[in-house]
Amino acid sequence: MSSIPMEYLGREQAYVKHTILRTYLQRLFMIIGRSEQVINYVDCFAGPWSEESDDLRDTSIGISLSLMKDCAKSLEERHGAKVKFRALYIEKNDEAFAKLQKFLSNNTGSVVDASCIHGDYTTKIDDIASWAKLGFTFFFIDPKGWRKVIDAPVLAPLLALNRTEFLINLMYDFLNRAMSMTAQQANVEELLGKPITFSGKETATERQHIIVSQYRQVVGDLYSGRTAHVTVERPGMDRVLYFLIYLTRHSKGLIVFKEAAEQMEMVQRVSQFETKLRQQASKRLPVYDLFSSPEDQPESVNIRDNRMLARKYLLTRLSSTPLLVDNDCWANFLVETELYPTDLQLAFKDLIKEEKIINLDANAQRRTKNPVRPNWPSKSERWVLCAESLSPKVTC
Question: Domain with 119 in it: what CATH number?
Answer without folding.
Answer: 3.40.50
